[in-house]
Amino acid sequence: MNINKLHKVLNWEYWPSSMFYIPNLPYAFYLAAKAKHAAFFSATNPSIKSSGNGTESKFTTLGLIPDKYKPKSILHVANSEINNTLLSLEKAGLYFPLIVKPDVGFRGLLVKKINGIDELKLYLKKYPVNTIIQEYIHYKNECGIFYSRNPNDEKGKITSITLKKFLTVKGDGTSSLKALITKDLRAKLYINILEELHQTTLNSVPKKNEELLLSVIGNHCKGTQFLNGNHLISKELEETFDDLSKSIPGWFYGRIDLKYNTFSELEKGENFKVLEINGIIAEPTHIYDTNSSSYFKALKAIRTHWKSLYDIAITNHNQHKIPYKSVRTFIAEMFELRAYTKKVKMYSKIV
After folding, report:
1. Which residues pair with 95 in a beta bridge?
2. Would you say the pTM of this structure is higher than 0.70?
3. How many CA within 13 A on the CB side of residue 185?
4. 314-337: per-residue pLDDT in tens?
5. What would the pLDDT profile of 257-273 be if each residue is shown by its tens digit?
6. In angstroms, what CA-CA distances link 269 with 165, 244, 255?
7. Which residues have CB under 8 Å from 4's CB, separation 6+?
8. For residue 12, with 0-12 CB atoms within 10 Å meaning exposed, 13-18 middle and 19 or more buried, which class applies?
9. Spatial CB neighbours of 130, under 8 Å, sequence gap ≥ 6
10. Is the CB of residue 160 less than 8 Å from the CB of residue 284?
11. First to last CA, the chain
12. Measured distance CA(85)–CA(319) in Å, rounded
């Protein structure tokens, strides 16, 4: 076993998601039995398809957000005329650099920063799926905030804040960028991604103490480190998210990923943009900060969030007459999502 694989084995932030969910399955079965319906959670966020099980359109969900909080975005429909999409970009006032990502997907699937027309055309040709093209937000900070509110309550709770530390290396004045990456304990784990992102500058030699940002995508699979920011939960921030939740019809539970200027401004509801709304499959991603938690605390945090999800779904169903989705339909959607994900990954290999 090489040192990179050993590091991933010893640090559970790199463990497969099954290691966090299989141990919690007995609790999930208990909640389903208590609700008397195996897909009770589908009533949690009635305005989002299947309450946000990963099969929903991100573009449609983004449309629920008030304009002042969301980035400018357009949807490129798979195999449609690219020149028409370029015209739509111009009409929407969207200019490079841009962020592109599949309209359906999760865990950073094919999220990429695009710097020019040729690069955009190549991406859309390579991945013939519905694609969101979104303005690149220049706020320097990114975080994920998990919020839940019972439909009968005026106020909700922030239960998780994940601060995102983008992958960087610091120049020493003599080493090439590639050498700096291979010497960095974290960066070298993502060497294949970074070699593709920086293929034209790998042999350049950064200046001494020059800090280089290696990735601007806030996903763990791109190297971003998740840090526990729960100490920043405050009454003022919860009030801001109460207002935000009420402005998004039918959204009561999940994680909002956003970019912001300063945290004090975010608390006041100023100078931030929502990148995505995530529903019932959202994770309290602060649990992946191995320096502030333990594996067993992470498992407990997931169960705690599932209890909140249960309370919201039951309230929606029993008191607000939100129907549960049939188990057969829900399972079929998950199989469709699995097939879709395999197809998208296959495109990256054969085109």
Report:
1. none
2. yes
3. 5
4. 999 999 999 999 999 999 998 988
5. 999 999 999 999 999 99
6. 22, 9, 16
7. 188, 189
8. middle
9. 57, 59, 75, 76, 77, 78, 102, 103, 104
10. yes
11. 32
12. 44
